Amino acid sequence: MADPASDAETIPDLLAAAEEHYRQGALEDAAGAYEAVLARDPDHLDALEWRGEIAVQRDDYETAADMLGRARRLRGDAAFAEYTNLGLALYELGRARDAVDALVRAVARDGGDLVSHSNLGKALYEYHQKVDAEDAGRIAADWLARFPDNPDARHIGAAVSGRAKPPVADSAYVADVFDDYAPNFEEKIAELSYQAPDLLAALLAEREPAPDGSLAVLDAGCGTGLAGARLKPYAARLDGVDLSPKMLTKAAEKGIYDSLEQAELISFLSEPQRMEGDGRYDLIAAADVLCYFGALDGAFVAFSHALKPGGRLLFTVERLAEDDAAGGYRLDASGRYKHGLGYLEETLDAAGLDVLRLRRDVLRYEYGEPVAGVAVLAVKRA
Ligand SMILES: C[S@@+](CC[C@H](N)C(=O)[O-])C[C@H]1O[C@@H](n2cnc3c(N)ncnc32)[C@H](O)[C@@H]1O
Q1: Domain that holds residue 82
Q2: How many whole angstroms separate alpha carbon 38 and alpha carbon 28?
Q3: Of 11, 36, 175, 338, which has the fewest beta carbons less than 10 angstroms from its beta carbon?
Q4: In terms of domains, do 276 and 365 share one?
Q5: Does 197 contact ligand 1 (Cβ within 6 A)?
Q6: Count of domains forming the chain
Q7: Which of 163, 193, 222 is the last residue of a domain?
């Protein structure tokens, strides 16, 4: 690593060394060389920006915000290009308003940068929840109006502004969100006291206390396999389907699935070979998945077709308070949908599914608040 105290090397030498270290993936050495440049010239813009970039890559958001904030002040807003990295660093430091400001500038500079849009969605939700819901709604509405074709703007822009009610979360948006989560999904969701898989397992165990490994089971929206692990003792065959390739990679590591497929679950269930006869599954589970659907009729009909007569459907949804349930479902600022119990029962019934058990409970916590939900076990009419 370069020694910041040594004057032997010139700035061009140090920059060349830093670039070479970076090219070879030696980030610590590259960071040291850029720091040596900054020890000689604290306002060196390339060194500030590259040191900031490396800090983001190493999840060192304090350093990133410091370096990139200095570069922004020196360059001036019009010439500063590192808004995506600065926005991410500020978001990770919990500075939601500043993060939104930086990321709005990032998408304005480069409307096609999907990472900036995705990070703007996260920052806007946090700004909405923690700081100023009205201002967040105004910024979200503007974002949606300017980028109607971007999946994040279309979904989170609609969710935070309340300006539109898409009937389902866009598949590209869902895949992107969960690809991003996948490396740390299980740790992050445990921190939120996530319990959808346990609630579903408990509901099923009340009806079937002694699993005998005889059922054909589909884990719809299987994610990393948290629900699948609970369903495995029931399964002669366990299939998983999910939109997110990176969640599926994690699920595969568990070694519990007979098949895993990357697909949208209604399309998956609508493939001709899966529509033959009376359905192929004894049990379909969707733990914390239907909150990415507003209208549930399509999913329930697809589940019903895929179930054998007498087969069971097990799922959770986030619950709308009774006095807020007109219209059946609502898109929350989080980007997830909440459903009314009346809507659930009607839509299940219309798809030929009868409720066997329904339990209200907390699905997880978010910003310290309980997320009210319902776990349902339904049966396909014979
Ligand atoms: C919150 S995770 C839950 C994962 C798993 N069921 C569990 O309980 O840990 C939601 C999962 O549903 C998937 N998903 C959401 N909508 C989907 C759809 N329409 N088709 C397939 N997968 C979907 C997401 O990609 C994500 O992996």
Answers
A1: 11-163
A2: 15
A3: 11
A4: yes
A5: yes
A6: 2
A7: 163
Q: Which two tokens stand for residue 81?
A: 């290009």
Q: Would the CB of 174 count as within 6 Å of ligand 1?
A: yes
The answer to whether residues 203 and 285 belong to one domain is yes
Distance CA 68, CA 120 (A): 17
For residues 272 and 276, give the distance between their C-alpha atoms in angstroms, rounded to a whole number. Answer: 7
Does 96 lie in the same domain as 26? Answer: yes
pTM for the structure as a whole = 0.88
- Can you give the pLDDT of all 382 residues of the chain as single tens digits? 445 445 568 999 999 999 999 999 999 999 999 999 999 999 999 999 999 999 999 999 999 999 999 999 999 998 999 999 999 999 999 999 999 999 999 999 877 688 899 999 999 999 999 999 999 999 999 999 999 999 999 999 999 999 888 999 999 999 999 999 999 999 999 999 999 999 999 999 998 888 999 999 999 999 999 999 999 999 999 999 999 999 999 999 999 999 999 999 999 998 866 655 567 899 999 999 999 999 999 999 999 999 999 999 999 999 998 777 677 999 999 999 999 999 999 999 999 999 999 999 999 999 889 999 999 999 999 8
Q: Which of 96, 128, 163 is the last residue in one of the domains?
A: 163
Q: Report the alpha-carbon distance of residue 18 to residue 3 in Å, rounded.
A: 12
Q: Is 185 in the pocket of ligand 1 (CB under 6 A)?
A: no
Ligand 1 neighbour 265 (Cβ under 6 A) = yes
Q: Do 157 and 185 have their domain in common?
A: no
Instruction: Check pocket membership of 288 for ligand 1, CB cut-off 6 A.
Output: yes
Domain-embedded: residue 3: no
Residues 159, 211 share a domain: no
Q: Which of 171, 174, 219, 256 to mutate to test the pocket of ligand 1 (most atoms within 8 A of CB)?
A: 174
**Does 32 sit in the ligand 1 pocket, CB within 6 Å?**
no
Ligand 1 atom 10 nearest Cα: 289
8, 20, 39, 260, 262 from 5: Cα distances, Å: 9, 20, 8, 55, 53
Residue with CA nearest ligand 1 atom 9: 226
